């Protein structure tokens, strides 16, 4: 796809039938070769936007990444760069955590949110930046 990333994201937000195609078109760099499946779900589960399944099995077998409808909410990810940050910098980090050593759920979240915070750029929305910082504080101080 050679359309602008933001335009494609807007279409995925509006058109659920386009979401899998959008996700399949994303440039995930090195991360892509370690993903066995990248699945967009039509039904929401809890309050999750995305999740990484089976990272403990390691990168040899591949990891299943699941993306829920919440991930396509403008409240959750105001722009395409926020969506990519959640996928690459947060869930992608979980993928490598599982492959290179077991971590507790709480410490794994702290580490993943710290990685997400470290990788924020001027392309990320103020709302997303605030949510990342708030999430990190939640796990650090709960």
Map the helices and strands.
Blueprint: H1 5-14, H2 19-25, E1 35-40, E2 50-53, E3 63-67, H3 80-100, H4 105-118, H5 126-141
Parallel strand pairs: 1-3
Antiparallel strand pairs: 2-3
Portion in strands: 5-15%
| Low-confidence runs of at least 5 consecutive residues | none
- SSE succession: HHEEEHHH
Report the mean per-residue pLDDT as an integer: 87
Radius of gyration: 15 Å
The quaternary organization reads as single chain
Number of strands: 3
**Any idea how many domains?**
1
Shape: globular
How many helix segments?
Answer: 5
Q: Which keywords apply here?
A:
single chain, about 140 residues, mainly alpha, 3-stranded mixed β-sheet, 5 helices, 3 strands, about 50% helix, about 10% strand
Task: Provide structural commentary.
By secondary structure, the chain is mainly alpha-helical. The chain is built from five helices and three strands; from the N terminus they run ααβββααα. The chain has one domain. Helix 4 (105-118) packs antiparallel against helix 5 (126-141). The chain is globular and about 35 Å long.
Describe the structure in brief.
The protein is mainly alpha-helical and 142 residues long. Helices cover 48% and strands 11% of the residues.
